[in-house]
User: What shape does this take?
Amino acid sequence: MVDETAFGTRDAKGDFVPDQRVGYGPLFDWPTKPVTIAKWFVSFPGYLFPWNALYFGFAAVVWFLLTPSMSTVASFAPGWIAIILVRNLAIIGGYYSYFHFRYYVRHRQGTRFKFNERWPGDSGRFTFGNQTRDNVFWVLASGAPIITAWEVVGLWLFANGHVPWLSWTRSPVWFVALMLIIPIWREFHFYCVHRLIHIPFLYRSVHAIHHRNTNPGPWSGISMHPIEHLLYFSAMAIHWIVPSHPLHMIYSQYHLLLAPVPGHSGFDRYELGKSRAFHTGGYAHYLHHKYFEVNYADGVIPLDRWFGTLHDGSAKATSNLRSKRSAAAVADVS
Ligand SMILES: [Zn+2]
Ligand SMILES: [Zn+2]
Assistant: This one.
């Protein structure tokens, strides 16, 4: 058991508050520090490990072993589309269930490092009156078919030469560079879509489904309204414009599908054995679910810092947010 008091404190409500503030890694620090960036790139946890490398592993298995041939996907047919849907459902279901069962059913580390001391449960605001049932429903009934549609169209475009195909043998450097850029593109795209769906009209009719989860768990990650799924997964359309390979597209796809799990884990750290615990990176987005109009992005680009919406987890950031809200309320009344 790892002692969480070495990494943070509990507030009056019993919620875990990490000592380490929300940050972005060194990629956009100025003046630039190449050695620090290189170390961060390969450290654990860092840019590549564990998460981005894991998502790439999933993408490689899917592309090399679980995707029909290009000649098959060159024309639309129910058979191969159904295979892709079942494969996506199985991987999403298996991956999300693993984290849910480990941390929310078997309680492998209890509430150690859990931001919200309470466990998600029943509430009338959820579909079927229960957070997990609600989340599983929106992920599998809406998320899986919509990502499958994006993938099917993308594969068909590649197979028919309608989108620019990047060859590994002719452009190995750009092939690898693009793979490394994909998570950063994803982050920028997510920020833009996320700001859009926080416009009050879209928030009420679309994004509110995701924000039912004020105490998120893994399944909350892509528990979204179908219109949000359509917009969120549209990051894959970059592969219709920028020369790339289907492996890049499938990496984008599995990044979109799996990266929300640590972001909605509800835990600041996952324990590794009896004495180590590593960052999930989920604190920034947990604060978004708690305070709504902060931390629209999270990851390596300091977008929220640039646009004044960063909540770094400190008491000062909370009191600044409260003053901003009171000022806005006064302005509304007058
Ligand atoms: Zn979220
Ligand atoms: Zn939001």
